[in-house]
Specification:
By secondary structure, the chain is an alpha+beta fold. 18% of the residues lie in helices and 36% in strands.
Length: 254
């Protein structure tokens, strides 16, 4: 029975637990829920800077799965986060602003690094005053779930006194190493109220906009790179705050 349940889904397993007390015991067992966790879950958690690291590893496997589905853990010295998609056990990662390559990020006249209570990271990047905007993030495909269609999302917000983003389009590009140059999307980050709103609220205090998508076949050592640029306009811009770039399975919405 353990094997049968582990070949279903977390949702179906939870439904099975409601059938009878005997089945509930099997459905909640570590033997079943360990199969829903990624094979490298211990390695991922061990890379966390969370003080509750030892507590996480001591949880029952179902409790650990639920925790990782609802509470991103911070890894890579605070520059990335990891989370499970609760419906299908797929991996999601966010490259925090500190993991991105941001042009002029260390020039205080152009960018500032601030802390916000709604961010999962200790620091986010805020545009103070720049003309050309240019940043990118990349990571290895091998850390992602295999045979999965992923999308990359810019996670950001705009402050009330922003300017420079209402009429100037930004270029978004996603490319995977060894393939043709990715398609460029050109869009307005801060469109007028009566225009189509491409950015969506995430429910965690941030907005997101899709940068592109790709299929990860078998978790190779190639890289995926996401880039945002404003290259045809030198008008001053300010008020954009970047939390990061999230890579998550395409068919899962937040």
């Amino acid at each position: 029975m353990c094997l049968i349940l582990s070949l279903t889904s977390p949702r179906d397993t939870c439904r099975s637990a409601l059938v009878s007390p005997a089945l509930r015991s099997v459905a909640n067992s570590d033997a079943v829920w360990k199969r829903f966790l990624p094979c490298d879950y211990k390695e991922i958690i061990s890379g966390s800077s969370s003080p509750s690291l030892s507590l996480l590893l001591s949880l029952a496997k179902k409790d650990l799965y639920v925790h990782l589905s609802f509470h991103p853990i911070i890894i890579e010295n605070g520059s990335m986060s990891f989370q499970l998609e609760k419906e299908n056990e797929k991996k999601s990662y966010m490259l925090g602003a500190r993991a991105l390559s941001i042009k002029w990020a260390d020039t205080p006249e152009y960018w500032s690094w601030i802390s916000l209570p709604e961010s999962r990271f200790s620091e986010v990047a805020k545009v103070k005053k720049v003309g050309r905007l240019d940043f990118k993030g990349k990571t290895k495909l091998k850390i992602l779930s295999s045979r999965t269609n992923y999308a990359a999302y810019l996670v950001f917000k705009l402050v009330r006194d922003r300017y420079g983003f209402r009429h100037t389009p930004v270029e978004l590009r996603l490319t995977t190493e060894g393939t043709a140059s990715g398609k460029v999307r050109s869009l307005i980050l801060d469109p007028p109220p009566n225009a189509p709103q491409l950015a969506k609220e995430r429910g965690d205090g941030w907005m997101e906009i899709e940068m592109g998508e790709f299929f990860n076949e078998c978790g190779e050592y190639r890289t995926v790179e996401c880039n945002l640029r404003v290259v045809h306009d030198n008008q001053p811009k300010r008020g954009l705050i970047i939390e990061g770039i999230e890579l998550r399975p395409k068919d899962n919405n937040r």
